[in-house]
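== Protein entry: sequence and backbone fold ==
=== Local backbone shapes as whole numbers ===
==== Amino acids and backbone structure tokens ====
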Amino acid sequence: MDSDTFRDPSAVKAAEATAPVTVVAHRGDPYRVRENTLRSIASAVERGADAVEVDVRLTKDGVPVLLHDDTLKRLWGHDRPLAALTYEQAGELTYGGIPTLREALLTAGEKRLMLDLPGGNEDSVRTIVRTVRECGAGERVYYCAGAVAMLQVRAADPAAEIALTWTSLAPPRPVLLDAVRPRWLNYRFGLVSRELTERLHRDGLLVSAWTADTPRTMRKLIRNGVDSITTNRVDTLAAVLRKAHP
């Protein structure tokens, strides 16, 4: 859907009435399978995800892998910073459980990956973007994070699709939007209202919301006209959408 459509208020209403909501699995299917793993991605896809949001960081030797935290403690029981471990060392500590970005792209198949870049810096962002390019996955990947990381993504790939994570009701400044050129604004679900989505649609932007896990919240976001919902409960969201759009 092009941005000109969203600048026409009458077209916006028609589009909202017919456009499906993108189902984004938060770190895979984490209530069933350990987050940010290949099994979690596969489970999310099986349960109806259109896209899977994963977190990407670099090991000490520059391998992009899936991990949200900066250490292995919460998920893997080792209080060791990922940045201090080689890929081989991280694999030994997790019994091969931490996948590479390349493996994640292969597991997702035709589904899209939404790459969150926690702690991203210029070097790591360049490496991650280069890996996506080398895998020929530019059309299957989009990026989300705050302004600093997304500016670095834009510098590394002028054609990248970006979901700028925004945590305030105060709108991003036009100079930032001009520099990042996001397709999406990515909001915590509690900030999203009908007025917000209508304003952003008029500005030619799509709206994604995170992380909604109850049917009540999901239904409210759908009524408010969001284009994408990120959830830990993919099957619940898929069921809500089937009822909303039988």
Remarks:
- The domain at 3-244 is CATH 3.20.20.190 (TIM Barrel).
- The CA atoms of residues 131 and 219 lie 37 Å apart.
